[in-house]
Amino acid sequence: MRIALLSPYSWTYPGGVTRHIDALSEELVRAGHEVRLLAPIDPDDRLARALHKGAPPQPLPVPDALVPLGRTVGLRANGAVSNVSLCPSAVAAMRREIRRGGCDVLHIHEPVVPALSWFALRPHADIPTVGTFHTYSSNAITNGCARLLGAERRMNRLHARIAVSEAAAWTARRFFGGRYRVIPNGVHLAAPREVDAACASSARPLRILFIGQAVERKGLPVLLRAFEALREQVPATLTLVGVSREQVAPLMLDEGGVHALGKASEQEKARELERADVLCAPSLGGESFGMVLTEAFAASTPVIASDIVGYRDVVRDGEDGILLPPGDPVALAEALRSFALDGSRRGAMARSARQRAERFAWPQIAAEVLEAYEEAVTVAARRPSGRLMGAKLRLGLAPADLQPRVKAKRLHSIEQTRGRRRALSGRARVRLVAAVVALSLMALAFIGVGPMNVAQSLAGSLSSKPGLILAGFAVMCGAMLVRALAWHSILARAPTWRPARFADALQGTLIGVLMSATLPVRLGETSRALIVARRLGRALETLPVLLATIVLQTLLNLLALSIVGGVALVSVHLSHGEGVLVALALAPGAVLLAATLMPVLSEREGVTVRWARLHRIEAGVRVVLQRLRDGLALLSNRRASALAAMLQLGAWAAQMASCWLVLNALGLQGRAGLGAALAVLFAVNATAFVPLTPANVGVFQAACAAVLTGAYHVSAPSALAYGIVLQAIEIAAAIAMGLPALMKEGISWRELRLRTVHAAPVKLRPLQSGGRQVVGSAQLAVERAAAGTGARRP
After folding, report:
1. pTM
2. Other CB atoms closer than 10 Å to residue 582's CB: what's the count?
3. In degrees to the nearest 10, what's the CA dihedral of 350, 352, 358, 360?
4. pLDDT tens digit string along 69-110?
């Protein structure tokens, strides 16, 4: 049989689909068939690197039967990078080869992907066409766009359809309709590895392997957090294939025991799989199959993977691997620890993994694919009954398999949501709803006031007094510098490994402000602690100390906020707007009172927490209180504490001056003077204590409008314009000061965001009985690993 295999992805930037096509072609040739490959090829030149964000090609061997179809470009899709061809010349070359190739079967991989696979689906009167769907996606937007462009009609031109997993079949049925046979990805089987006593021994360090890209979807930050906790209790090493050391460094405070190999050849990957005791695949979702799992099974290596669709089709939980809730570093660390301490279990799972791999052996998979080819040839040989049916087939209005049409329809989700993931999703939904409500109220207020009125107020301020706007921006930048000085006055007396310099505090403060302006919740505080911990060294020891200083600075901010609220109340004329300030003024005092009483309440005998959620809240409060105690211990020197308080109040004074300058820029100084600036400063900071949106957009403007209109009788358009201008100044100052600091630090915004989101340390329960011996051996192994890699010990 003459077979043409079409790939929409680059042969020189290979991914799972390309490797699948390469292995399938080898097996088909071995079975006596004639195979031609149609795929894009990128030469190793400057243009190729530019089109793929600097990445060099990692080509597979190019077979003689491969027909090149031009260049590709790297595009982000489904949480990863897809290297696809978008050139019209490539489509024209592909069509020429199909017309003159004389193939018996055309096998299109990823038929929905532009541009090659998409445009290959056109009427070919006498060419049986088979399509394989590799992707799992529940994204209704991207798949909906494909449907609007006629994807369902194009898929009807396939004589046979294959999906590599039930997850991929679900996506295809959900959005494109049709019938699918599931044929999984294959794997090459070599001679089975002997699982000897040394491999199953729990005396030597556990060798953990991760293979994948450093993208968030693959769950690498989750694995790194779990490993940081694991290595404190059991001896273990972590090898990363496909991830460079530069990509790991921003995600870890201490790289001890971690070996990042970067891009590796297939031979190197196979060697690492044979050496590993366990493969970790902590993906968060978006996986249709997981070829790396079957490759691990072929090497007699069990896996610990996320319990997600795609992986469930491969791993038999408890037999050849362990499935865990995705995104749970504690569960992952505990599973790895139990795996390390139970050598006999590792050995049994390794043998079961090899047996499982036989289901995915390439001879078996190729035979099933050939059955699909024969079905397509048989169907294509049939003649449609009547001209109308023939026209429907040519237009894609009827399926080419000549069976009753199965339309795309909404299907029940195949995702399983469990315990912790459900709780996290619930909190995410609450934050999302709160953010949507806040932005909706802002939009309604904007519409009610009148967009033209607000625009006129904005235009008048920017055109008549731009100097005051620039002055407000400069003073806001100065407030950041004073805030950095205040933090440094605390940091200088903290017991860090290296004394903190003002440059360290300044870098952390500027980057923290930038992250606060672009991320929800209060992740900017964690960001600045992480930055300074990396700069001071011994980050694992330093980070808790830095967090204690931040908690202390937050306490000073609450005191300052209470003072500002009291002064603002005195300055406000009695009106209905006073109630807003009274409510906001009581909030900081309530927080301070709760912080004072919580130690007494939590330490009373007989006080129990009945619900798990309240228990988690209590545990979090205890951590914060402990950090607060540690922070207060730093202010035993009265001169130092007075300096820190004065500088913190100075930063607030600078911010108040910026607020006052913006009031003057909008011509509101007649009705709203210095007291109004103080009241606005208080309101926006009180509402930003737990921000609902990045930079608290929407709530910020509502707070400004509530104070100015209610207490100072400023018109609603002017008050709203004031809130927009003031926040624009804050965000501009954060970007202008924070972005250069971030570039100087040598870390990207995305890397810092990932590390910040996954910053909470993972703590495992202490080991029982022989736990002390295990901990001792773990620390010895980490020391040896650190000595071998040049990494610092924690």
Report:
1. 0.73
2. 12
3. -80
4. 989 998 887 667 789 998 889 999 998 888 887 889 999 999
